[in-house]
Amino acid sequence: MKPGITENELFAILTYTNLRNNGERMDCKLLTAGGNTNPWPIRFASSRMVRYGDLVSIDTDMAGPLGYLPTCPAVISAGMGNQTRNSGMPIGWPTSSSKDPYLSSP
Questions:
Q1: How many percent of the chain have pLDDT more than 70?
Q2: Segments in the chain forming alpha helices (H)
Q3: Tag placement on the chain: N or C end, fewer CB within 10 Å?
Q4: Does an H or E element contain 20, and which?
Q5: What is the pairing mode between strands 62-63 and 55-58?
């Protein structure tokens, strides 16, 4: 994820992606970056700009295709590419097929 996008714009991309894939809705707007991530989960997405190195926290309680209700909280580091945690899990959203410039790796 590249810095320079707002929390609201990121939430819009997430919502669009869910709906584009026949999802039903997003139940809450818990997507925050940087200083907005604490205290969690008090704050909702805002017009705050995501900066390089910010942690972006997501927990949207979306209703996906066919009424599937996944719980998929995530913490992503903005502008850090496809680095990995100690567990070997990648940090960040999959970007190989993304055409959105804000979600592609540097």
A1: 72
A2: 7-20
A3: C
A4: helix 7-20
A5: unpaired
In whole angstroms, give the CA distance from residue 63 to residue 68: 6
pLDDT tens per residue across span 37-86: 776 666 788 999 999 989 888 887 888 888 888 777 788 888 876 554 44
For 31, the token pair is 């997507």
Q: Which residues contact 74 (CB under 8 A, 6 or more apart)?
A: 57, 58, 59, 93
Q: How far apart are CA 97 and CA 106, in angstroms?
A: 14
What is the CA angle 104-52-96, rounded to 5?
A: 15
Q: Which helix (H) or strand (E) holds 11?
A: helix 7-20
106 pairs with which residues across the strands?
none
